[in-house]
Amino acid sequence: MAFLQTPLSQNQRFPTKLPHHANNSGVISRNISFTRPLSIRELRIVRSSGQNEALVDSSPQIFDVPLLSCSEAIEMLKVNRAKQKSKQQYLAMYSSVFGGITTDPAAMVIPMDDHMVHRGHGVFDTAAIVDGYLYELDQHLDRIIRSASMAKIKLPYGRESLRKILIQTVSASKCKKGSLRYWLSAGGGDFQLSPSGCHEPAFYAIVIQDESPFVSKGIKVVTSSIPIKPPQFATMKSVNYLPNVLSKMEAEENGAYAAIWLDADGFIAEGPNMNVAFVTKTKELLMPLFDKILSGCTAKRVLSLAEALVREGKLHGIRVGNVTVEEGKRAEEMMLIGSGVLVKPVLQWDDQVIGNGKEGPISEALLDLLLKDMKSGPSTVRVPVPY
Questions:
Q1: Please, what's the b/e burial string for 20-39 (b: 16 or more CB within 10 A of its CB; e: otherwise)?
Q2: What tens digit of pLDDT does each residue of 10-21 get?
């Protein structure tokens, strides 16, 4: 698999004489000659202003692309995977394509012609792994099946088979603390727009161990300028997350943790991958309706757990309904809720400080209730993994 660093002038695929129309384009210099071996990265675009702009970066790069055998391609996958440094470790993956579980991160790949890859025709969900238990597995599994139905993706197996595969994948990973992510796809077959050429639906699952420390410190959010997805797509958990990604990037560019979406009527909707909730000055827990946004499993569980705070007198009520921006910004407390953030206090929204600008007691109490539920909750939310 040796790479040949051949000068462009000696490589028949890269002629040194440009076609006449290229010479007259005003984009590439008329007189290009190679007196020494050059890398592709040393080429420059010469603009009419006389300024030179790098076509690509200036680090060395080879010319010839090797033709790899299957074993050589696999070896390169292993080499590249070994180079990657991340706080996330991939411990096991199930794929219906190869019909089993692998614990080799280099083999955790999916086909390029999978409709989920090139058309975004797939749905996904997740479940936390806490002390060897899967938290809210059934609730998340029910949601991915609903999402698949909305996306017109047939199930490759029945619900119980999907459930057993997920539990066995976690078991094979030996992971006691982390997360399980899984996808349903229209499957592979071709690169057409319609999934009619897909052979059969596909199911993938991966176990992730994340070494990032959990941080409950309050954060800042901004109002997103990225358009929210219409309800038909916002209420299903599909892999079409470009708006979510751009919303998150917009927040980071403005020194914030997340950006908050408003719906078409101007009511508060959700964050890029979490729900939002408020505590009013009358001590009422307030959360937006789920009719136009994703029905958050963690958010719904928090609503249930919050009933204990009502019984204790710490909350005077719980309400799900339309929430205006004015109501949200003048709230006593604001928080983001989701499987990735759990309960994260929001101290500032745009230029508005929320409450007294500190983490509030209700946010802290709800986080404590959720953490306790994840570690010792009822069997309806905790599924043991047989390692």
A1: eeeeeeeebeeebeeeeeeb
A2: 344 433 333 444
Indicate the pTM of the whole model.
0.83
Q: pLDDT per residue over 169-198, tens digit each?
A: 999 999 999 999 999 999 999 999 999 999
Return the bridge partners of 219, or none: 346
4: its two tokens: 């040949």
248 a catalytic residue: no
**Rounded (10°) angle between helices 137-150 and 159-173:** 130
Phi/psi for 321 (5° steps) reads -175, -175
Q: At residue 158, what is the residue type?
A: G
User: Active-site residue among 237, 292, 329, 344?
Assistant: 237
Written in H, E and C, the secondary structure of 132-174 is: CEEECHHHHHHHHHHHHHHCCCCCCCCHHHHHHHHHHHHHHHC
Predicted confidence (pLDDT) per residue in 230-243, tens digit? 999 999 999 999 99
